[in-house]
Each structure stands twice: as C-alpha cells, then as structure tokens.
C-alpha cells in the first residue's frame, strides 16, 4: 500500500485534533502545499468534460400544451334520474372520471403503446440501434453493456427479440414527461430526441393515440348503452319511466355525437407542438462547470489525504504484475 500513497500519507493522522475532529487549518495548509494535485484534477476533469461534449447526443425538446375540451354535458334532472334508477338503469353519470383526467393516465398506458408500435417510423427511430436500414430487418445488438453488467451481477438475462409494444411502453415511461398544472387546467407533455423532426412527430402521435383511444372507448360504451336503453324502452309502458329512458338515450346520443366529430375529444392542444431551436441537453456551460467542480472536489480530497494520483494510475499494472504466474516471471528474467 505504501507504493500507492505518498510519504505524506503518514501525516494524515495529524489532521485529527485530540477531540477527534478535523483540524481545518492543517487541511487547508496541506491543500495549499499540494496545489499541483488539485490543479491536475481540475484539468483532467475539464478535459473529460470536453471529450463528453464531443461525443454526447444533443437533444431537442418538444412540448405540447393541452387543456380539457369544452363539453356541454348535462346531467338528468333529479326526478328523472331517480326514476331511471328505479327502472334498473345504470348508465353512468357525468361525475365519473373526466376524460381529461383519463387522458393524463392513458398517455403512458399499454393501449397507447400498442397503437404506436404499429407505426414503423416510430419503432425504427426509437430503436434505431436494433434496426438495419439496408436489410429492412431487426438485428440483435452485437454488444449490450446492460446485459453484461446483469450477467456479472447474476441478474437473469432474457433472450433478445425484436422490440414491440412492451419495450415501447418502457421507453415512453422513461422519456415522456407529463407536467400537470391543476390551477391552470393545463397539462404540458414533453419529449426529447436528437432529431427535432421526429420529436415533433412522436409527440403528435402519442397525443393523437391517447385522444383516439378515449374517443373509441366512449363510442363503444355509449353505443352499448343506447342498445340497452332501447330494449328497456320497448319493455315498459309507464310514462315516467319512458320519459327517463328517452332522456337517457338522448344523453348517450349526445356522447356519440361528440365522440364522432372530427375534433379533439378529451384534450385539446393549445397550439401546435413546439420544438426548441437549439439543443436543450447537454448544456456545454453547465457540463464544463460541473466537470470543473467535480475535479476541484476530487483534487482537494486527494490533497488532504496525501494520495499520489500518479501512483494510483500505476496500481493496475502493479496488481497484474503481482498476480502474474511465477513461471512467466522466471522465463522473463532468464531471457
């Protein structure tokens, strides 16, 4: 161990006062004495930051603001609603979860992922690392760092298969952000990608898929309700019940009309999807600042602990030499 720590490591105990606390004056003096180590750490960290910026994938941010659509649903009058209940009618009410609230949940649902997974443009862009554009086929990655780490840790690694709705759902959960602003009745959906054109397309697609899913859900439910109510209407002769049923049918027909219209159903965009003119991540100034600060912290720690960074760099080679087979060492000495 003495080969990897400088002679000043023996003075580390001098940093501790008799009460067991660190002597800040001694620590500052040691940092000032070994300013070259701090400077070297800062320079190395800054260089690594520059290298990262050269190879980083710059991301553009796409956003879409949506608000609830203006709905003119009217509940049944209290008396008629009670009559409908007595007649065994339970068609739901306007107090159910609002479509806009469901929209926020559906954005990251398997139903939306399944619909988007049918779009080749989305799948080949999201999983471009597994798509061979020349062969027009999915290919298994030649190397996966994640699988290598899992194997090393003993975590099960499953057989590869072409990406589908399940993988796309994981991607959406990791990369699509939904910012809810209840006081403004506004929801902002954000997505980042290195291709600004695809970022816009993907965000438009996920919004359209969520809104369309709720539209189709309402069309199906209201159609079933209308069929049920018509059967009830044919089976009763009581005027009050027939009036309640008729009003319920009218209510469901209104739902069908709203869902069938060629307009936004649950969430209405406030303007088109906007994409940043310049990349939003990574930010060079912030990245370099963090790199310098990290280098400064590491340099101060090395200086305080009196660690020789050059000895640390030589540690892997010395370790290999120590565990090298003896016969190889003897053969080398003989040569």
Explained architecture:
With 335 residues, the chain is α+β, with helices and mostly antiparallel strands. The chain has 2 domains: 7-56 and 282-334, no CATH class; 60-127 and 163-275, Bacterial polysaccharide co-polymerase-like. Helix content is 56%, strand content 10%. The chain has 13 helices and 7 strands. The strands form 2 sheets. Strands 1, 4, 5, 6 and 7 form a 5-stranded antiparallel β-sheet that branches. The radius of gyration is 33 Å and the shape is elongated.
Features:
335 residues; five-stranded antiparallel beta sheet; two-stranded antiparallel ribbon; 2 domains; disordered N terminus; Bacterial polysaccharide co-polymerase-like; single chain; 7 strands; 10% strand; alpha+beta
Major pleated sheet = 5 strands, antiparallel
Helix content: 55-70%
Reading the helices and strands in chain order gives HHEHHHHEEHHEEHHEEHHH
CATH class of the largest domain: Alpha Beta
Q: Uncertain regions: pLDDT < 50 for 5+ in a row? A: 1-10, 72-97
Beta strand count: 7
Distance between the amino and carboxyl termini: 30 Å
- Rounded mean pLDDT is 77
CATH topology of the largest domain, which one?
Bacterial polysaccharide co-polymerase-like
* Helix segment tally: 13
In the residues, how many domains can be counted?
2
Global Rg = 33 Å
Shape: elongated
Which CATH architecture of the largest domain? 2-Layer Sandwich
Broad structural category:
alpha+beta
**Relative strand content:** 5-15%
């Amino acid at each position: 161990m003495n080969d990897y720590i400088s002679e000043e490591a023996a003075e580390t105990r001098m940093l501790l006062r008799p009460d067991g606390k660190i002597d800040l004056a001694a620590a500052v003096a040691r940092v000032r004495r070994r300013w070259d180590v701090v400077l070297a750490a800062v320079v190395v960290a800054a260089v690594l930051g520059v290298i990262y910026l050269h190879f980083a994938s710059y991301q553009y941010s796409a956003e879409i603001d949506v608000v609830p659509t203006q709905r003119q649903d009217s509940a049944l009058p209290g008396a008629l609603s009670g009559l409908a209940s007595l007649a065994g009618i339970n068609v739901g009410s306007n107090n159910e979860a609002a479509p806009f609230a469901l929209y926020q949940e559906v954005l990251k649902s398997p139903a939306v992922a399944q619909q988007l997974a049918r779009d080749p443009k989305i799948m080949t862009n999201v999983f471009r690392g597994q798509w061979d554009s020349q062969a027009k086929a999915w290919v298994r990655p030649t190397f996966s760092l994640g699988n290598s780490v899992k194997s090393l840790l003993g975590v099960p690694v499953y057989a590869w298969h072409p990406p589908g709705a399940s993988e796309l759902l994981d991607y959406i959960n990791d990369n699509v952000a939904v910012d809810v602003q209840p006081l403004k009745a506004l929801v902002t959906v954000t997505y980042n990608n290195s291709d600004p054109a695809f970022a816009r397309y993907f965000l438009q697609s996920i919004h359209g898929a969520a809104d369309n899913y709720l539209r189709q859900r309402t069309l199906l439910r209201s159609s079933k309700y209308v069929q049920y109510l018509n059967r009830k209407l044919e089976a009763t002769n009581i005027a009050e019940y027939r009036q309640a049923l008729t009003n319920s049918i009218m209510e469901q027909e209104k739902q069908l009309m709203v869902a069938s219209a060629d307009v936004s159903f649950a969430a209405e965009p406030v303007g088109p999807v906007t994409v940043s003119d310049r990349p939003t991540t990574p930010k060079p100034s912030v990245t370099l600042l963090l790199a310098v600060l990290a280098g400064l912290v590491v340099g101060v720690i090395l200086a305080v602990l009196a660690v020789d960074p050059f000895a640390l760099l030589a540690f892997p080679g010395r370790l290999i030499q120590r565990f090298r087979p003896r016969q190889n060492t003897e053969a080398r000495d003989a040569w």
